[in-house]
Specification:
Order of helices and strands: EHHHEEHHEHEHEEHH
Number of helices: 9
Oligomer: single chain
Helix content: 40-55%
Number of domains: 1
Structural class: alpha+beta
Number of strands: 7
Radius of gyration: 19 Å
Strand order of the largest sheet: 1-2-3-4-5-7-6
Length: 269
């Protein structure tokens, strides 16, 4: 993709934003950006405490495990400007892969307990339990986390990331799901096809659960595309399996988290 000359700065209308998949060696930078960009989200203030510096440190440790899971089970997109300067990050997980395996649950639980005070652990438990309770029954691609570096906000970075994400979803015909605790994000996601399914107060903070419709198991989706794209391959396989299962037994459409040990952080619920 084309790069803008190094003279570009935030606010430059001619800025070119390149979106690409991030590699394993870039996860540290992604976590740092996400922690800075999401530090003052209302839900994070409630979960990780009022002190900004300490909150960002705790959030960074929490996101370190989450980002590694997203990268292993989907794709992590980065928005870059200048000479590959990272200014935005978005995670996108394959259907059925947002729920950690048991060993990952234990590792994540240990990290939460180690890096947070007891009351903080309880708050995180309430937060994750609420999100789990609202997780949809249908197969879906899970979107998030998403953040833009504070210095680069309102420059179209977040929209470029979401447009790239939506293009992938459209190519796959995939349903998408996300959560947000920011009212301003509700309107933004609405312009990209997401609709509020329900709203719930979590730790006293309004949370919106949003769904973007898609068509599963469409035969027009090319096998070549699936084979060349790991995310596409995973979504296609999950859609096919879900379609076969539901056609045999419609009553099997229960929440996956209640059927198998891959329930996310079940120790907290």
């Amino acid at each position: 993709m084309a790069r803008q000359p190094a003279s570009s700065r935030p606010g430059d209308a001619s800025l070119s934003i390149a979106i690409r998949a991030l590699g394993a060696d870039e996860l540290g930078a992604a976590v740092a950006l996400l922690a800075e960009g999401m530090r003052d989200n209302p839900l994070h203030v409630k979960a990780f405490g009022p002190d900004p510096q300490r909150r960002q440190q705790r959030l960074r440790r929490f996101l370190g495990q989450l980002v590694a899971h997203v990268h292993s089970n989907g794709i992590l997109l980065g928005a870059c400007v200048h000479d590959d300067e990272l200014v935005g990050v978005l995670g996108m997980m394959k259907p059925g892969r947002c729920r950690p395996a048991r060993r990952d649950v234990l590792r994540m639980a240990g990290g939460i307990i180690t890096n947070n005070p007891p009351l903080g652990v309880l708050r995180i438990q309430r937060w994750l339990s609420a999100w789990l309770r609202n997780d949809p029954l249908e197969p879906h691609a899970h979107i998030g986390p998403l953040a833009v570096s504070p210095a680069w906000r309102r420059q179209g970075v977040g929209r470029e990331l979401m447009m790239q994400c939506c293009a992938r979803l459209d190519a796959l015909g995939a349903v998408a799901w996300l959560e947000t605790d920011l009212a301003s994000n509700v309107a933004f996601y609405g312009t990209l096809g997401y609709a509020v399914v329900r709203q719930e107060s979590v730790l006293g903070v309004p949370n919106w659960f949003m769904r973007r419709p898609g068509t599963w198991g469409q035969r027009h989706f090319s096998r070549a595309k699936s084979d060349s794209d790991p995310l596409a391959s995973g979504i296609t396989a999950a859609a096919s399996a879900a379609s076969r299962r539901f056609s045999r037994d419609p009553s099997s459409a229960r929440s996956p988290c209640r059927q198998c040990p891959r329930r996310p952080l079940h120790w907290l619920t």
